[in-house]
Amino acid sequence: MDFLGGFRVGSQMGGGENGFCTLMDYVGKGGENVGDDLVVLFGHLQYACKRIAALVASPFNSSLSKSTGIAGGSGGSISGRDAPKPLDIVSNEIILSSLQNSGKVAVFASEEDDAPVWIADDGPFVVVTDPLDGSRNIDASIPTGTIFGIYNRLEELDHLPVEEKAMLNSLQSGAKLIAAGYVLYSSATILCASFGSGTHAFTLDHSTGDFILTHPSIKIPPRGQIYSVNDARYFDWPEGLRRYIDTVRQGKGKYPKKYSARYICSLVADFHRTLMYGGVAMNPRDHLRLVYEANPLSFLWSKLGVEVLMEKVEFYQFSRSSCIKDFRCFWGVWMIWQS
Fold first, then answer.
1. Domain endpoint, select from 215, 246, 261
2. pLDDT at 215 over 90
């Protein structure tokens, strides 16, 4: 327990100095003990996300997506390989570089790349990611996030050509994920992850550079009063969904209180709020990427320790087609859907 700026703060699980439990403490032998290789991988992954957090918060990040230079500057254009790159591309390069340096990754599959990247023959893991979800909201300072999933490399595919084994490793069933998570870049930087046993959130302490365990074994409230969906698409929804939303926002379901709408249009932010406050988060259109978004987030949701509901609980086990296959997703608690 410690005092910072007049506020009493402390991790909800001891283990490190001052009673705090850092992410690296938690995944190490004193905590979850996920194995040395995965500890090394998470060390590099958290470093990449700290760099992205700093980049997102930088007053100069808007210049990365403009070819005219920084606002107020000379206005000269830059072309060719030195041209500024959008934040999602830069974030992708940051993560790829960190994973290459870890020496623990065989395949890197990103929403920003046309095809998975084969990194090393002896890397034990496969990492899939959406490097910066919601990057179009950056200029409005709306929360963004990184989504990731981790698989074991399929050694039985090692004899195949590089491109083929890279693709097949990336298209593993979501049920085979060994870890997944997201990092929310907002008023706080929060890394939420599951290693197969519970879902846990770690908050970045900027004074030390550590992710501190602040929400161990998250349990979503069994009853929420918030639904998160793009209401502008109401008339595109199936009749059953329109009827459900009309019912809960009028308080005419089994649960008499009226639901409120909260929709940020940033997947990680909407997902995280639902995790904390309860309710339901939906994307009724075939809009979410199965490999990079739907599978990792559904893995997290399935580890909450309550009776949770996805559109189909088993849907994240479907894997074949392509890395860019789009899916609709519904995340909530079973009690919510009986409203």
1. 215
2. yes
How many domains in the chain? 2
Active-site residue, from 88, 205, 210, 270: 88
Q: Could you give the CA distance from residue 145 to residue 95 in angstroms, rounded to a whole number?
A: 13
**CATH of residue 301:** 3.40.190.80
Any catalytic annotation for residue 121?
A: no
Known catalytic residue at 293: yes
* Among the listed residues 34, 35, 39, 36, the one whose alpha carbon sits nearest the alpha carbon of residue 24: 39
Q: Which domain holds residue 272?
A: 226-337
Under DSSP, the state recorded for 294 is I
pLDDT digits (tens, 9 = 90+) for 121-154: 999 999 999 999 988 888 888 999 999 999 999 9
- Which is the catalytic residue, given 25, 32, 112, 210? 112
pLDDT tens across 149-171, in order?
A: 999 999 999 999 999 999 999 99
- Its pTM stands at 0.84
- Quick one: 92 and 160 in the same domain? yes
Q: Which of 23, 96, 99, 111 is catalytic?
A: 111
Q: Is 17 a catalytic residue?
A: no
| C-alpha to C-alpha distance for 325 and 33, rounded to whole angstroms | 34
From 32, 133, 205, 270, active-site residue: 133
Please confirm, yes or no, whether 133 is among the known catalytic residues.
Answer: yes
Residue 70 is predicted with a pLDDT of 39
Active site residue 130: yes
Q: Return the sign of the alpha-carbon dihedral for residues 273, 92, 288, 235.
A: positive
